[in-house]
From TrEMBL:
Family label: Belongs to the short-chain dehydrogenases/reductases (SDR) family.
Species: Nocardioides donggukensis
Molecular function, one GO term: oxidoreductase activity
The name this protein goes by in its record: SDR family oxidoreductase
Keyword Chloroplast: no
Keywords, comma-separated and alphabetical: Oxidoreductase
Oxidoreductase listed as a keyword: yes
Length: 216
């Protein structure tokens, strides 16, 4: 039986890594993409996946990697978008060029990746995005993050509406707390919430899910 395929974009040591582990336990073949080649190689070895070092802000390189993963597997079943840029700067000190750089990491690679992945996304495939409460409740001292997450949420709604007629769905999971080493906002718990959001049937689908902790 062929394995479904997960591609994680922005596979860092936290949520991205835990999402990879969660889907791997379910039998997915896992491909990991991020800038750090050494970190990717270690994680890929641990879970038995493949590592694809890439600068996510480079549309040509990202397109090439997404197409390579899709062509090698013959399909992509879950595309997980995880990166964001954190910059300490309030609206009076955030430079336009810095905001644009942050959007090039935290938003625009999703558009590039979905366009590149579309030929390999079969019916039932999911576009899964790590969202944040900053989309609705931004911290003014790091306002760029809120703009990234708000734009992501908006883009996901449009992606979902565009892909839904072909049985492909998109969702942003809004994490309603700060990531922590333990507790409901530890990476394994957040990864479980992301997995649950992607596993929903179309009949129950919404392009936005709020995660405030595991059910009581």
């Amino acid at each position: 039986m062929e394995k479904p395929t997960l591609l994680v974009l922005g596979a860092g040591p936290g949520v991205g890594a835990e999402v990879a582990r969660r889907f791997a336990r379910e039998g997915y073949a896992v491909a990991l993409a991020a800038r750090s080649a050494d970190r990717l190689a270690g994680l890929a070895d641990e879970i038995g996946g493949t590592a694809h070092p890439v600068d996510l802000t480079d549309p040509e390189s990202l397109t090439r990697v997404v197409r390579e993963v899709g062509e090698a597997a013959g399909h992509l079943d879950v595309l997980h978008f995880n990166p964001s840029a954190f910059r300490m700067a309030d609206p009076l000190h955030l430079r336009v060029e810095d905001l644009l750089d942050d959007l090039r990491l935290g938003v625009t690679p999703l558009l590039t990746a979905v366009q590149a992945a579309r030929p390999h996304l079969r019916r039932g495939a999911r576009v899964l995005v790590t969202g944040s409460a900053a989309a609705e409740k931004p911290w003014h001292e790091a306002c760029s993050l809120g703009m990234q997450k708000a734009a992501l949420r908006n883009l996901v709604v449009s992606l979902d509406a565009t892909l839904a007629p072909d049985g492909i769905r998109a969702v942003a999971v809004q994490v309603e707390g700060l990531l922590a080493d333990e507790g409901p906002f530890a990476p394994p718990a957040v990864a479980e919430a992301l997995h649950a959001a992607a596993a929903r049937p179309d009949a129950d689908w919404t392009p936005h899910v709020s995660y405030a902790g595991p059910p009581a």
